[in-house]
Specification:
Blueprint: H1 37-40, H2 48-55, H3 62-69, H4 89-100, E1 107-109, H5 121-128, H6 131-134, H7 146-163, E2 167-168, H8 175-190, E3 196-200, H9 205-218, E4 221-225, E5 239-246, H10 257-265, E6 269-274, E7 292-296, E8 312-316, E9 328-333, E10 339-344, H11 350-353, H12 366-404, E11 408-409, E12 417-421, H13 425-437, E13 440-445, E14 448-452, H14 459-470, H15 478-484, H16 511-522, H17 545-548, H18 554-557, H19 569-586, E15 590-592, H20 598-615, E16 623-627, H21 633-640, E17 644-648, H22 658-667, E18 672-678, H23 690-699, E19 703-708, H24 720-723, E20 727-730, E21 750-752, H25 790-823, E22 828-829, E23 842-845, H26 855-864, E24 871-872, E25 879-882, H27 890-912, H28 929-932, H29 943-947, H30 951-955, H31 970-975
Parallel strand pairs: 1-13, 3-4, 3-5, 5-6, 6-7, 16-17, 16-18, 18-19, 19-20
Antiparallel strand pairs: 2-8, 7-8, 9-10, 11-12, 12-14, 13-14, 15-21, 20-21, 22-23, 23-25, 24-25
Helix pairs in contact: 2-25, 3-25, 4-19, 4-25, 5-12, 5-16, 7-12, 8-9, 12-14, 13-14, 19-25, 20-21, 22-23, 25-27
Length: 987
């Protein structure tokens, strides 16, 4: 029975027998109208000449501009990339659906951390298929993010309540990487010169694999064993933590009170990987003394999707919050004293602590965390428990039905999973054959089979499972239902404390109320459906509706990541096609799609380098050169990969200081492992020294890692392999149009040359291609990471095709340079490259206006003009970094420029004294409707100036965005951290 996802009411027709075309013609349902490039790329062809004239009167074509901006030595000279000529939207949707239907969506009972779920249609349509939810960026600007911040605080509340812990992150990448992050927490907190970490043999295999990958560079010894009998005291002084699964991978539910005591007596922390749905019935891990609880919220409305995306979680005790990874949402207040949400503690902590950061987590899985939160609200505490009781009851009925037929059940206490002992591998194979004939997948455990039930399991499924496993008929399970009754647990395992008591989880159980609540939240935020999001370095291009559509198709959504190879041929075909496209674009020979974030891609690339060096007798090399301008995740990733960052200076133009690079490369020549370079530079400039820098590093035996965060300024014009890079990562959630969704999902695949490709991540649960025996190990739970989001990039690349991808890059360069040219008379453009041009982004220097006006004042004032602010104070404090992307129209570019020019006039008024230095529209921004309609207006400027600073806003007042809170007090929020809903009226 297929997972109950979207019915695809207007599914594309796969076969169009009546449609024919002449030989050599491109078949397209609507001809020239059905083209993606003309819908996605903002500037119209007839507008390009006037934009070029604004930049430089000598530029006649987009080629003129890109040739002038990119140094000739950098431009690609090799074989032209080939991803096709571009396809119509409907035509490509038809083709992808045909590929998707090559997957066999058998009913999965494999479990192992992945379960079927039902995404409520009100959430599917109003969140996953709604640009108000999937297009907003990470909420660095809290005032325009109150809706999704509330949703993520709700997620934290769900996790904290169900686990019984004090504080939770607002999402991690998946269960396995959350386990690795917990291990790192234990290491940071306990501290040992020769640390060891215990992993129970009952932990899911993929979790253990990722922990092993991550442990090596950190110098942690991983020890596996039976937690019940292991002598933790023998590791006193070395043991930093222990991990158990609850329930374990074989379904067994154990009371870990004694294990926890022995772990604590050894001076270590206890980590539990828990099932959130089971915790509605089972004792919460806090009651047996767990210090950290991790897991996945996938079964809360997020389909399996061949491995993800799913929101991982990590919850802990309050005293450990300073070593937590990732982001935490907290409740603070705005300057008027009104409650307001914001990111707390870990906000971009890598840019502050760099290699000393507790983790490299940046993008996580925020959109899926929001789905899980809304799923919890829609069902409420009673509904969640009812779902759990139904799953458990069906598992009990299955076990009883098999026992009555003489089948041995190995499991003791269990929640949703049983292990059936069959005596021999041949007997087990017979069961698997019968299961496949019945279009079911069971877990292969040698002489046993594992069966995991979930929300989608019906009584009919249970009857068929009894027949398949026993080989005996089962016409009805009604008698079993009566005999099993209301399944529950013994007193020692039963949950006794309430959860999700806050009104938010007890108010929205009807579709009407849920729909209205979701609407109330999304109008509080700025997404791409509201206005441009000009975040430099973050590439907030539109995630087109045709690109997003395949993510919810059942043929992709309902596939277990460990399903048999012959059932996932559609996925494999799509994945191999995307890998080939990315290799064509970068010039590399190999690709791994496993890393499920950009920072995970950085880590995977560096681990690939380390594995290659070890295999070639150079394992002692551990120095990584990193320019001071690099993204903060670069030094954090290098430290987690066991490399020692050495910082390279930049010159006054923001370029890598070649002399400093040569000096430090020579100084560390015997231990030099790699250099990490971003291209174009983080300063938004096409440097002409990349090749020379790469040659220096290669001459001393090191490898070159290219940070591909800015790949959208390269595609079709530059190939990283020709620059001298050995490996690079690509942010599919940036360049290739996977949604940010308020902070994820993200995907950060790596591409590598022939010498490094065999050492890219492998996986023990599935063959992911030719890998050397010394490959770098798994870096995420699933073999292909967040595979359900990969069709989005497959669609994006192939709809644009070779010419469209190149034009998109040139349009991004055009838009950035047009805006820079318009704003240059009003603000200093901090860095420029060849011919005074920028790449795809540029930095506005606001430091000359200090102390009268700060960069933050301009960022908040932009909200009154209806815009999300650019990236603030990165990579240079006191600046704004602007990136328009290729998908913004000339009208929107001008609207933003008009706003910035108007703000410059306001700055001048403050500097000249026409506005009060404290009470002015900039310092008081943003202005809320509540403030504007108040009977009391105490400011020294008119309400109209606050609300409608330019005429265009007044003309379109019905659509103007208003922030729902004033400037948020970040310091108060850190000093008074509330990371769950603390009281009934907070929302």
């Amino acid at each position: 029975m297929a997972l109950q996802m979207s019915s695809r009411a207007a599914a594309p027709a796969v076969a169009r027998a009546a449609h024919s075309c002449a030989a050599g013609d491109r078949c397209s349902l609507l001809g020239e109208q059905d083209t993606f490039a003309r819908r996605h790329i903002g500037p119209r062809d007839e507008e390009v000449p006037q934009m070029l004239q604004m930049i430089n009167k000598n530029y006649r074509t987009l080629d003129d501009l890109s040739n002038a901006a990119i140094p000739p030595s950098i431009q690609t000279k090799g074989k032209r990339m080939d991803v096709g000529e571009g396809r119509g939207e409907q035509e490509l949707l038809d083709e992808l659906l045909a590929i998707a239907r090559e997957n066999k969506t058998f009913k999965s009972f494999i479990g192992q951390g992945y379960y079927g779920t039902i995404t409520p249609q009100v959430i599917l349509r109003n969140v996953l298929q709604n640009p108000s939810w999937y297009t907003p960026y990470t909420p660095y600007q809290a005032e325009v993010s109150q809706g999704r911040l509330e949703a993520m605080l709700a997620y934290q509340t769900v996790v904290s309540d169900l686990t019984g812990m004090d504080i939770s992150t607002c999402s991690l990448l998946d269960e396995a990487t959350a386990g690795a992050e917990a291990m790192r927490m234990c290491q940071l907190h306990v501290k040992s010169k020769s640390p060891a970490f215990f992993v129970s043999s009952g932990v899911h295999r993929q979790v253990t694999d990722v922990i092993r990958t991550r442990s090596g560079p950190l110098g942690i010894e991983v020890i596996e064993g039976d937690a019940a009998s292991f002598d933790f005291g023998s590791l006193r002084g070395r043991l930093v933590g222990a991990l158990v699964q609850y329930p374990d991978t074989f379904g067994t539910v154990e009371d870990y009170t004694d294990v926890t005591k022995r772990v604590h007596d050894a001076g270590a922390l206890m980590v539990a990987s828990a099932d959130l749905l089971a915790l509605t019935m089972l004792r919460e891990p806090s009651t047996f003394g767990a210090d950290v609880v991790i897991g996945s919220s996938g079964r809360f409305g997020c389909p399996m999707g061949f491995g993800g995306p799913h929101a991982g979680f990590l919850a802990t005790r309050d005293e450990l919050k300073r070593v937590m990874p990732g982001r935490i949402i907290g409740l603070s207040k705005d300057v008027s004293g009104k409650p307001a949400y914001r990111m707390a503690l870990q906000t971009r902590e890598q840019h502050i602590r760099r290699e000393k950061a507790s983790s490299n987590i940046c993008t996580a899985a925020a959109l899926m965390a929001q789905v899980a939160a809304f799923y919890s609200m829609y069902h409420g505490p009673k509904g969640l428990r009812a779902i759990a009781q139904g799953v458990h009851a069906k598992a009990c009925i299955l076990a009883e039905g098999l026992k009555r037929r003489g089948i041995d059940i190995k499991s003791g206490a269990f929640f949703d999973t049983i292990v059936v002992e069959l005596g021999s591998e041949s007997a087990a194979k017979e069961v698997h054959h019968r299961a496949r004939d019945a279009q079911m997948n069971l877990r292969d455990l040698g002489c046993s089979v594992g069966v995991s039930l979930d929300e989608t399991t019906t009584l009919c499924d249970v009857a068929r499972l009894i027949e398949v496993i026993s080989g005996q008929p089962c016409t009805s399970v009604e008698d079993l239902v009566k005999s099993v009754g209301a399944a529950d647990f013994c007193d020692a395992l039963r949950r006794k404390t309430p959860y999700l008591q806050h009104p938010t989880f007890n108010r929205y159980h009807s579709e009407t109320e849920m729909m209205r609540y979701l609407r109330r939240l999304n109008v509080k935020d700025v997404g791409l459906d509201t206005a441009m999001i000009p975040l430099g370095s973050c590439t907030m291009k539109l995630n087109a509706a045709s690109v997003m559509a395949p993510m919810t198709w059942p043929e992709f959504a309902n596939v277990h990541p460990f399903a048999p190879e012959d059932q996932v041929q559609g996925y494999i075909k799509m994945i191999k096609g995307l890998e080939n496209d990315l290799c064509q674009i970068t010039g590399f020979s190999g690709c791994s799609l496993q890393p499920n974030s950009g920072a995970a891609g950085e880590y995977a690339g560096l681990m690939t380098i380390r594995s290659y060096l070890r295999a070639n007798g150079q394992g002692h090399r551990d120095i990584c050169l990193i320019p001071i301008s690099a993204h903060g995740t670069n030094p954090a990733s290098s430290a987690l990969a066991g490399l020692k960052p050495v910082i390279i200076a930049c010159d006054h133009n923001g370029n890598i200081d070649l002399e400093d690079l040569k000096k430090k490369a020579r100084e560390h020549k015997d231990k030099l492992a790699a250099i990490m370079m971003t291209y174009p530079s983080t300063h938004g400039v096409y440097e002409d020294t990349f090749k020379e820098a790469a040659e220096v590093v290669h001459s001393y035996g090191g490898c070159v890692y290219m940070d591909g965060a800015n790949m959208n300024a390269q595609v079709g014009l530059i190939k990283p392999v020709e620059l001298g890079a050995d490996v690079c990562h690509l942010n599919l959630h940036k360049t290739f149009a996977i949604p940010h969704g308020g902070g994820g999902p993200g995907i950060g695949p790596i591409c590598a040359n022939e010498k490094l490709a065999p050492y890219m991540p492998g996986h023990s649960c599935r063959d992911v291609g030719m890998r050397a025996s010394g490959h770098s190990g798994a870096v995420s739970a699933a073999p292909y990471g967040s595979a359900d989001a990969l069709p989005l990039s497959w669609m994006y690349a192939r709809m644009l095709g070779t010419p469209g991808l190149k034009k998109a890059t040139q349009a991004a360069i055009l838009n950035a340079n047009y805006m820079a040219a318009r704003l240059k008379p009003y603000y200093k453009i901090l860095y420029t490259g060849p011919n005074g041009l920028v790449a795809h982004e540029f930095i506005l220097d606001l430091r000359p206006f200090k102390p009268a006006v700060e960069a933050e004042d301009v960022a908040k004032r932009l909200v009154d003009y209806g815009f999300h602010a650019p990236t603030m104070s990165f990579p240079v404090p006191g600046t704004l970094m602007v990136e328009p992307t290729e998908s913004e129209s000339l009208q929107e570019l001008d609207r933003f420029c008009d706003a910035m020019i108007a703000i410059r006039r306001e700055i001048d008024a403050v500097v000249k004294g026409d506005y009060d230095r404290v009470d002015n529209p900039l310092k008081n921004a943003p202005h809320t409707v509540e403030e504007l309609v108040s009977d009391s207006w105490m400011h020294k400027y008119p309400r109209e100036v606050a609300a409608f600073p330019v005429r265009s806003l007044r003309a379109a007042s019905g659509a103007k965005y208003f922030a729902t809170c004033k400037r948020v007090d970040n310091q108060w929020g850190d000093l008074n951290l509330y990371a769950t809903f603390p009281h009934a009226d907070c929302c």
